[in-house]
Design goal:
Length: 158
């Protein structure tokens, strides 16, 4: 659970996790076709920091990591179903970042990692400036769920 009052002086950050796939061809007549990457070429994971983020930076079809100092949230929703590889990458990145943050950033404790699915929970919404309902609809369109990362990784056999 995020305790916003306890984070004074520690900026919250948000990242977008994506994969650059070298074998994806450009669009031809509105169609895209994936090809196998050449030998030796691997999919490259990217983790882009979003500066001065707001709720409008949350892309419904992207996987995000929210660093709320005491907690790390991997944020996904139902429109991310084609982003399974990015989701797994985000889980490993969050886990590694949580383990390294006390030594790299001199944090007094290991942040807890969660997977936040669906509509952001009130704790996640508190990390955003002026969160509001957009056009009377929720952002993700479904219920909130926040599960510890360890439970998700165990359920997926990772």
């Amino acid at each position: 659970m995020v305790m916003v009052g306890d984070m004074k002086g520690y900026p919250m950050t948000m990242y977008r996790v994506d994969h650059e796939r070298p074998g994806v061809l450009g669009s031809l007549w509105g169609l895209t076709r994936a090809t196998s990457p050449a030998k030796g070429q691997a999919v490259k994971a990217t983790c882009d920091r979003i500066e001065a983020f707001s709720q409008h930076d949350l892309e419904t079809s992207a996987v995000h990591i929210l660093d709320a100092y005491r907690s790390l949230y991997i944020m996904v929703n139902s429109q991310c179903s084609s982003k399974a590889a990015e989701f797994v990458t985000a889980m490993y990145l969050a886990q590694d970042f949580a383990m390294l943050s006390p030594s790299i950033q001199d944090r007094p404790l290991l942040p807890r990692c969660y997977v936040a699915m669906g509509e952001p929970t009130p704790d996640v919404k508190a990390c955003f400036r002026r969160w509001s309902v957009i056009d009377g609809h929720s952002l993700a369109g479904n219920e909130s769920m926040c599960v510890p990362l360890e439970e998700v990784m165990e359920a997926l056999g990772l």
